[in-house]
Amino acid sequence: MLQKLKNLFSKEELKNLFRFIYLSLAINLFIEILNRSSLLEALKHVVTNPLVFLYNTLIVLLTFSVAFLVKRRFFVSTIVSIIWLGFAITNAVLLSFRVTPFTAVDLSLMDEAIPMIHVYLTKWQIVLIIIAAIVVITLIVLLFIFAPKYKQRVARIRNAVCIVLLFGSILLLTSLGISTNALAKNFGNLADAYKDYGFVYCFTNSLVNTGIDKPKSYSEEKMVELAEDTLTTPPEIKEDKKKTPNIIMIQLESLYDVTLMKDYTYSEDPLPNYHALQKEFSHGFLNVPSVGAGTANTEFEVLTGMDLDFFGPGEYPYKTILKEKTSESMAYNLKELNYSTHAIHNNDGTFYGRNQVFSNLGFDTFTSLEYMHNVELNPMGWAKDHVLIEEILKALKSTKEQDFVYTISVQGHGKYPGSEDDFSVPDSATLSSSNPSEEEQRQYTLTEGYTPAVDAITVDGIAEEDRCAFEYYVNQIHEMDAFIGDLINEFKNLNEDVVLVFYGDHLPSLGIEASDLENDNIYQTSYVIWDNMNLPKIDMDMEAYQITASILKRLNIDNGYLTKLHQNSLNTANYLEELELLQYDMLYGDQTIYGGTSPYIATNLQMGVDKIKVNGILTSGENIYIQGENFTEYSKVFLKDTELETTYVDEKNLSISTTTLNAGDEIKVGQKGDDKVILSYSEPYVIK
Q1: Is residue 263 left, alpha or beta, with left meaning phi > 0 and alpha meaning psi from -120 to 50?
Q2: Considering the entire predicted model, what is its pTM?
């Protein structure tokens, strides 16, 4: 065999091949060291799973093999090395902030992550990253110019055939590994999968494995059978038996019951309102798809009733299929009963593409941070949740119909401060109508350090190095709990039927392990359902994708095929198989369940419950004031398509810099987020 290789390849080419093999082994080992944050754990993986390690090395080698097609082999191999090392470092950094490792989907979130980088990194860290990037780019340019070239003739056809054979071998090994369970195609637990199967394979899998694979049993006949049997038994509930209260769901950022932490004691109950509700109303654990991050995926499961496990590893459907396709959802199901549907989030409207996705999920309005007033910020710069009360009530009062209001909180969001030096804003920072500059509106700097409130909750039994982050988090969820109590008090005075659901989207990124918890599960948050209708108390644990069907069942509502499936087939042997069939058919298949065409048409999503209007212009000396309604700190004046320098005065007045305005000119007001995206414009106002 060695002699045949010598005849096929020159001595120099064989040297190059073995160099790339050694380099692939070294890079794969380095990747696993960072993936496990331990040299010993990485070596243990090599010894206990040698075939998996070598398989990952082959994938790395495949990426190096493209260098055999060009003369600039040193340059190409250096670029490939930089990419792999960059992925490894990125994975290690992300794992320090969250439990979920780096996947290909994270690359699609870069446009949203960059504006938030100041939350997770200090200014000096950002500067160092920029300097490092400049140095790397400079070195790459110099390398391209001065790196040695391969001097012999490049046998491109022969080398291309060898690369194809290597690729085919990897595909064959992948198929063999999956069939023998040495590898897995879909991962129930992403973090564990990266440890079991290696970073290289898992990341590559996340790159190519997206959406839902066609189930083997999928056919038109199967879907017709499913529609006629499972989804119509028992008979559909009569309309006059359905209860239609206002339904408000609150997804609480990173909320979990900290009293489940073993050996920790608190100076007072961090969640008094939440615990009081659990004693009187339906509650239980909610199994969510992520830990430390991935808010939109819990949100996706709750709103659609779909199981994320059937999608590609680490996939965010908000960033893939839901950008282009509508989906059956809680909002669409309730619209069939003449509900108005609203989404509210006290953070950027573009985050996870919600300003586009919510249209495909059936919402009529979406009120994001850019449409809110008097937003108080916590010490890490996130909007406090108390502002949501006004927005929820505003949504309810905006229509005569019953309302479904889906609310996403943000106050408990990480990063959590490791020390007082990490705080970015004073605790009293507020976005008020005192005419601050744009910089003052969103960025604050501490001058004397952060001082916790005198009545702040303290924690005993915690390691000192973890105290600052954990006590900060505990006090944030304590304020979120106060928000829960205040919101319920508002509804007690509301003369309408209400069902109010609270639940956490995932555990916080605080390095919590299953062994630290009484319930022994880091993928469990909790939920509680308050109502003023005397609904029966039913305590049960469930999956995030089951909660909306469970709530609707208590109200005798079964609209939607997924709702019917969860309500009728929950404990049957074919439940998950039928759920996968439905999800595939609805999003990727022939939509046979709907007769071939989805009945869901994207809504004309209105940003903000209250429309922003321009009513006139007032000139006072050198000042020009745009007068109107519902302006916020994010309102900007545009003369046709040109943005004018705008100063927020109050909800009815904006001041613009001196400019020439002529009769017939059109001005409008746009809501411009921190990411510079214009979320909406007012109707044009023609200057008279």
Answers
A1: left
A2: 0.83
